[in-house]
Amino acid sequence: MSTATDGYYIPHEAKWPIVGSIGLFTTFWGLASWFNGSGLGQFTFFVGMAIMVFMLFGWFSTVVGESQNGTYNGQVDTSFRMCMSWFIFSEVMFFGAFFGALFYVRNYSGPWLGGEGAGGADVTNAVLWSSYDYVWPTDGPADIGGGFQSMGWFGLPLVNTLLLLFSGLTCTIAHHAIKDGDREKMVRWLGATVALGLIFTGVQAYEYYHAYHALDLKLSSGIYGSTFFMLTGFHGFHVCMGAIMLAVVMFRGMKGHFTAENHFAFEAAAWYWHFVDVVWLGLFVFVYIF
Amino acid sequence: MSYADTNEDVHHGDHDHHGPAPGLMRWVTTTNHKDIGTLYLWFSLIMFFIGGAMALVIRAELWMPGIQIVDPMFFNAMTTMHAIVMIFGVVMPAFVGLANWMIPMMLGAPDMALPRLNNWSFWIMPFAFTIMLSTLFMDSGGPAGGWTLYPPLSLQMGDSFAFVIFAIHFLGISSVMGSINIVATIFNMRAPGMKLMQMPMFVWTWLITAFLLIATIPVFAGAVTMLLTDRFFETSFFSAAGGGDPVMYQHIFWFFGHPEVYILILPAFGIISHIIPTFSRKQLFGYDSMVYATASIAFLSFIVWAHHMFTTGMPLAAELFFMFSTMMISVPTGVKVFNWVATMWRGSMTFETPMLFAIGFVIMFTIGGLSGLMLAITPADIQYHDTYFVVAHFHYVLVPGAIYSIMASVYFWIPKWTGNMYDEKLGKIHFWVSTIFVNVLFFPMHFVGLAGMPRRIPDYSLQFADWNMIASIGAFGFGFSQLMFVYIIIKCVRGGEKATGQVWEGARGLEWTIDSPAPYHTFEDSPIITSDTVTR
Ligand code: HEM
Ligand SMILES: [Cu+2]
Fold first, then answer.
1. φ, ψ for residue A11, nearest 5 deg
2. Buried b vs exposed e over B218-239: b needs ≥16 C-beta within 10 Å?
3. Residues B196/B301/B37/B194 CA torsion (nearest 10 deg)
4. Which residues pair with B454 in a beta bridge?
5. Model-level pTM?
6. Average pLDDT for B399-424
7. Which one of A99, B121, B129, B495 has the minimum C-beta count within 10 Å?
8. Parallel, antiparallel or unpaired: strands A2-3 and A10-11
9. Which residue on chain A is closest to B245 by alpha carbon?
10. Would you identify the CATH topology of the domain B30-512?
């Protein structure tokens, strides 16, 4: 039910948003109860997730259908583009919070804990943590998590960096392909991109396994473990999201969607992928190397 | 002239005209910006009374020294929840509701850029607040660590902790989606020919507000996520034993928190910049400087956050930096106040209810701004911090500030929404009663604050007794006089003297060129922009 004119497309009577609200409500409620140790919480959480998957599938199917019908004009397309770019900006700010935490600890509060700096840091250190010298990586004066080795940058992280950089390249090749109207080539190179993303995730999973078993590096390993796992973990989650988006685009390409002029969904997923890529570079430099 | 009328005639053939869907589902599935605006506004009004009831619990307990009515834990849950409800459940949804109603009409757009997303942004609110408010009924009590959720205290909360955090995430999703929608609408949906520097001030202020929201809500989400993992997954972000720092939470929180307080006031600046010119029958003085001032306030709001932390420990250089940057904010704020006054200067002014609220805003917001300036002085704040002086400051900017601007806008725009004039006499009484009580309520807080009465404590020393009792009288007076507001709104919705399209003699802008009440769909075909149809 919608008004299609030569003007702006205004959809009517949307039923998916309320399903989404119920889904998120169930998810959050379940998760909170689960964290609080209620047996029903876990079940509720998964029910909520199922509703969310159902909602996303339904909502996006509607939008894809409308797009294929030619319901959207250029102005609607611009709205979608703006929406996606600002969404990515909000994601950048989310990562900013965690990067900010890392910088703050390493440049300010860490050294203060170790007694450096004016304003009485030496006294605090002498009174509270007299045996503590601040050296990054650290798990703090109380050795929370009990000793660990930090993750080097050479080896798997470097491999992962190359994988992601390369996937950015394959993604761009796919983009040029669809711009030239070559849908099959687009699908092939997108396939390569998704595969690289999956390999990246696999390597990351192995790296975590290695950290827990060989390095004694855990989420609970003080501030180093906290920042390491939260930053790389959220990044890994975003890689998975990006890979799902690209895979959806790939399947749509296989069904014959997208033309040289009309392929916003591709571009949105590609922007997202490049964003994930850039975040990784930040991680590689600030979490692994320095 | 009425665009809506001409549109109906010319375009009946090729438009498939939709009225609202019948029944209750209209409100659940609507994608119409006016319906969604209405939903936001009613939601906000209901939450206003819920948050208000909590405030009255606080003021009842503070009526006399000693613990009288509620236990301290519940008292703290009230101060926490009162703030959360008022900020995230009242002021923000009210502004979003006004944005929904007015921005498309001001821009000559048929609707918001992303109507389905718009529906979702609203329909998250009741669900998220169900989670939030349910925490008050949990065995281990509601959140009692203050709305700022500082660790380590907030980590000691009972079962409510996880629910509060997820409710914040939930609300954040709504805010970010709503803001993205507003930005896309403003950049992409303006009637052809309307330049950015021709946009009405309300649109400008909302554009900048939306930017602040998109930039800072995710940071808040990050901060509370760290709280969550510190509590449940043994991370050490805010624990010095593990190498983290509890003060780091305050930095991340206030990086969000200070822009947040501007989110609560910038749309108000926009509203006031419409009302004062209308009832002064003059153009807004200094439009360009208003836009630049708003942008500078937004920029500065990112570099002042640690003025909330003068007493929690920072290097001297940081204390000085944040002191001076904070004081700098009063420059663009002062520009605005100056421009409002200059707009009134030699105008042929009349004092209908919206104008009364707007003038009340200018005066009382300025009182709050001046106490803010006092708080910005680091050595002075070491005395003032965490006292009732701070409470007086932010209530002056938020109640006769943000809330007054919302009331002013309801009186200003309700004839456009309902097609009926509100009861002018009752409106004026509502203004005067509110204004007397709001000052009785908040002004004494300056005195007890300067004398050292701490905030967020259910008991106090004897010497503060008199002024506290006076403040409580003001609180109950102000609270109950808001029932008048509800009565006036309902009366207006149900009928009254018919409003014209332009409603107010001095009103200018596209939103006043359409009928009152505004038809369900407006500007399905773009209006023509002339010097008559833009505010300048
Ligand atoms: C002239 C501009 C302003 C200045 C210089 C200013 C300054 C300050 C300072 C220094 C504090 C911290 C006081 C303390 O905790 O010791 C503060 C607190 C606060 N301000 Fe402002 N402010 C200004 C405008 C505003 C506006 C426009 C709003 C909101 C509409 C606002 C809302 C608040 C709130 C809510 C708090 C208390 C937060 C809390 O601790 O719970 N302020 N302000
Ligand atoms: Cu502030």
1. -70, 155
2. bbbbbbbbbbbbbbeebbbbbb
3. 0
4. B387
5. 0.94
6. 97
7. B495
8. antiparallel
9. A109
10. Cytochrome C Oxidase; Chain A (1.20.210)
